[in-house]
Amino acid sequence: MTDRPGERFGFEAQDCAPALRLEAHQAMARLQFETVHRRLEKIEAMMERLERRLWISVYGVVGMILAQAVQSMVQVTP
Fold first, then answer.
1. Residue ranges of the domains in the chain?
2. Beta partners for 8?
3. Distances in Å between the alpha carbon of 51 and those of 37, 43, 47?
4. Could you give the CA distance from residue 66 to residue 73 in angstroms, rounded to a whole number?
5. How far apart, in whole angstroms, are the C-alpha atoms of residue 37 and residue 58?
6. What pLDDT does residue 16 have?
7. Would the pTM count as exceeding 0.70?
8. Using CA atoms, how far apart are residues 78 and 68, in angstroms rounded to an integer?
């Protein structure tokens, strides 16, 4: 008998079809999860850029409203 796992009674371990299918399925699942993870990172980066643009536009609108308010107050009081 040998002490190495996968060997029995002096014979080498053989890969069987179900084990190979399972390994292929696990590799495919791992690749799919990595792809989904990369896509999510890209989506999160796009959302951050969109949020930044949104806040810039909000600050722009608020600035315009304040500028119009100040302008109207300057025109009313000489």
1. 19-77
2. 11
3. 21, 12, 6
4. 11
5. 31
6. 79
7. no
8. 16
Low-confidence ranges of the chain (pLDDT < 70): 1-14, 78
19, two tokens: 């084990």
Segment 53-62, tens digit of pLDDT: 999 999 999 9
Contact yes or no for 39/45 (Cβ under 8 A): no
10: left (phi > 0), else alpha (psi -120 to 50), else beta? Answer: left
Residue 30: the pLDDT is: 97
Residue 13's contacts (CB-CB under 8 Å, 6 or more residues apart) are: 6, 7
Where do runs of H (alpha helix) occur along the chain?
17-76
For residues 10 and 2, the answer to whether their CB atoms sit within 8 Å is: yes
